[in-house]
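Regression check, pyridoxal-5'-phosphate case 429:
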Amino acid sequence: MAWTRVRDEALRERALQVIPGGMYGHMSTARLPADYPQFFHRARGCRIWDVDDNEYVDFMCAFGPNLLGYQDPAVQAAIAAQQALGDTMNGPSEVMVELAERFVAQVSHAQWAMFCKNGTDATTMAMVIARAHTRRRVILVAHDAYHGADPWCVPLSRTAGTVPEDRAHVAYYAYNDPQSLEDLMRRHKGDVAAVFATPYRHDVFSDQQALNADYAHAARRLCDETGAVLIVDDIRAGFRLARDCSWSLLGIAPDLSCWGKCFANGQPISAVLGSEPLREAARTIFVTGSFWFSAVPMAAGVETLRQIAQTDYLERLEAAGRSLREGLAERARAHGFALRQTGPAQMPQILFDDDPDFRVGYAWTAECLKNGAFFHPYHNMFLSAAHGPQDIALALDAADRAFETVRRVRGTLGPVPQLAPVIEYLARK
Ligand SMILES: Cc1ncc(COP(=O)(O)O)c(C=O)c1O
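Current build output:
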C-alpha cells in the first residue's frame, strides 16, 4: 500500500484548534522532518502503525518504554488480570509490595523502592529525598543532561514560563569530567545535597559518549567525602545496559537511582530506589499523586521484572542492535556516506559525517520512514527484545533505498527551517 498521511493531516488540523501548537513535549513532531506522522493507531511487537495505517519497523520504542515488545502477551495477561480486580482504588493493591520486593532483589544497591508515574516525578522525588537527607540545597547536574521537564530541570533551551529562582540551587558541571565535578563541589562546599548522573552521555543532537570510569569513580568518592547523595538517573537507559543499575557495570553503587519508561513495558509508572541510609529521609518527605498507587501498572511491572530476571531479553536486544549497526555501516559505505553510530548498539544514535546542520540526516530518516523504518534524526533510539532478524533485514532494506535516494539529491538539500533555533543554540554553546 502506498505511504500516505491524509488522516494525520486532518487530525493535525483539528488538534491545532484545541491543543496549543497542535502538540507539545517530546512527542511533538514540530522539529522532525515534515513527513513524520504525529498520530498513531496501534502497535505490536516492534511494529507501529500510524493513523493512515502506514506500518513501520519501530526504532523509538515510544522513547524507551517498549522493552519486551509492544503488547507482550505475558505483560498483557498480567494487565488484564489486575484490571479485572481493580486499578485505582482507595489504596494500593498487594502488587505494590511485590513490585518493590522484585526491584530490591533485582537492583543491587537498592534496599527500598517508591513509585510514581513519570520520570520527572522520580528525579524530582530523588532531589527532595537528597535534600531531606543532607539538609543542604545544591544539586549538581551535568550540562545538557536531560532529567525531565519540571522547572528545576527543563532543558535550558526551553525555559519559557520558568524563573531563574526555579534553579537557584542547581549548578552545572561537564559530564565525564572529574575535574569539573570536583571544582563545582568545592565552589559549593558544605551545601551540596546531590550529584545527578546519567548512565552515559545521551544528549540529543550529539554523538553519545560512554561513561568515563575516572569521572564515575570521582563522583562516588566526592559524594562519600562530602556526604552528598549520588543519584544515577537510569530512566532512559535502565535495563537496556544491564539487569541492574547501569553504573553497576563499573562496580559503582549510587545512593539513589531513578527508573521509568521501560520497567512496566509501557504502563505508566516510575520509581526511585534507595540504599539503606536514605530510607529515613525518604520516609519523612511528602510525595504523592492520585494515580501513583494504581495497581495495573504495578502488575505490569511485576511481570516485566520477572522477564528481566528470567529471560534472555537483554542479549536479544543487544544482538538486534549490533546487526542493525553493522548492516547500516555497510550500506552507508556502499552509497558513499560515513555514519557516526554512537552509544550502545541497543540505544543507537545515528548522525552523518559532514552534516553540521543535520540536513542529510533529516533527508535520510524521512526517506527511511516512507520505506517503512521509523528512525529518529537527532535523538538516541531504542531496540526491544521483539526486534528479530527479519525486522532488522526489512529496516536495512528501507535504509538502503533511503541512502540511494539521498545520494542522488544530496547536492540539492537546503537547511532544515524547523532546526534553526537548535542550530543557533548549538553554535552559542
Ligand atoms: C534520563 C531521563 N531522565 C528523566 C526523564 C523524564 O522522564 P519522563 O518523560 O517520563 O518524565 C527522561 C525522559 O526522557 C530521561 O531520558
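Comparison notes: The two ends are 45 Å apart (CA to CA). The chain has two domains: 6-63+312-428, 73-310. No diff flagged against the previous build.
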